[in-house]
Amino acid sequence: MAWYRRSKLGFDAISSYFTSKLTSPKSTIRNSNQLSKLTCSAYYPLKVSKVSVDRSLNSRLYATSNRYYYVDSRQVRHFKPRGYRRWFDNPKNVFIAVLVGFGIGLTVYFGNVETIPYTKRRHLVLLSKNLERTIGESRFKNMKVGLKGKILHAMHPESVRVRLISKDIIEALQRGLKKEQGKNEVLNDMWVDQSREKGKEKGGKSATGHLEGLNWEVLIVNDHVVNAFCLPGGKIVVFTGLLEHFRTDEEIATIIGHEVAHAVARHAAEQITKNLWFTIGQLILYQFVMPDLVNTMSNLLLKLPFSRRMEIEADYIGLLLMASAGYDPRVAPKVFEKLGQVSGDSALRDYLSTHPSGKRRSKLLSEASVMHEAVAIYREAMVGREIDGFFL
Ligand SMILES: [Zn+2]
């Protein structure tokens, strides 16, 4: 409710400003109506005292509407503010307010902090699972309408192919969510390593509730744009422009695995939480022109770019997913390098604006211990052994 109080204060200040315009020193009082406007001004107490000679006309207004001073029963003026301002004059009250605020903050934080599967990073997500899902589904629905005529038929060979690869990845994800792996691997990337160690020490359970009962859908859009994403709620969208640049199944599996990993780690909901003030501001602005709250939210919020840390996280989780699905994870670094090489291509800009790629990312991924882990999973998958619980 802090934002509400702030906007209320802002509104009070603006209304006071306009009221003060009405009661400039040159103006004369013509009727009691004007007098009431003048006495309501919060920022011109001296002017009020000038006109207070007419107190007999409206003594009740004089005694009750000025915020800067008031007259007590002995007709003594007090310049102390009244109401909540007066309440905050007492340091004890301020201390209590800070303490209560801190307590609420802690409750909200610990009530909404979650552990991401595999990396064990703990992040704050204020968006409920249902709202996140609704936002994703709403955006997907809007996209279907917006891209009408461009969506490939479900039986189109490209549609069938991408859908089968996505199916492999999703099944690998569902197997991977079954149980926790006992191994305690060491990774090259410091923060992932530390985060996993810490997570295991604390015994924190990874948050996977948002992945249960999802109705996964795959949409292939016939457009030269090189882009792909996975909306919350299990909605995968791939543009044919991407398929033109990345032709092998392994390459497509790398991209889909990475996008699905963003959904696994609830990165969109985390971004929304991080940009809460921006979000609220935008919503207040937009609600005057777009009353449909969920549509507005989904259109605005799912455009927020992910951070570099989130990208690395999605790379790692995606690598394990593709390996478990039976796609060689050693292809992944080459895919990200290729994405970096073709960065001059304007069609790629959409994807690269949110997915920084290049040699560095490729090198990091190929050197990380997660690659050894992924290759081991891939080999087991290839000999037909069931892989489960690999990243919890
Ligand atoms: Zn990404």
TrEMBL record:
Task: Recall the GO molecular function terms of this protein's record.
Answer: metal ion binding; metalloendopeptidase activity
Q: Origin, by domain of life? A: Eukaryota
What InterPro entries would the database entry show? Mito/Outer_Membr_Metalloprot, Peptidase_M48
GO cellular component annotations, sorted alphabetically?
A: membrane
Q: Report any one BP term from Gene Ontology.
A: proteolysis involved in protein catabolic process
Q: Which Gene3D superfamilies match?
A: Metalloproteases ('zincins'), catalytic domain
Record field: transmembrane: 94-111
Q: Where do the Peptidase M48 domain residues begin and end?
A: 212-367
Question: What's noted on cofactor binding?
Answer: Binds 1 zinc ion per subunit.
Name the family. Belongs to the peptidase M48 family.
User: What is the protein name stated in its UniProt record?
Assistant: Peptidase M48 domain-containing protein
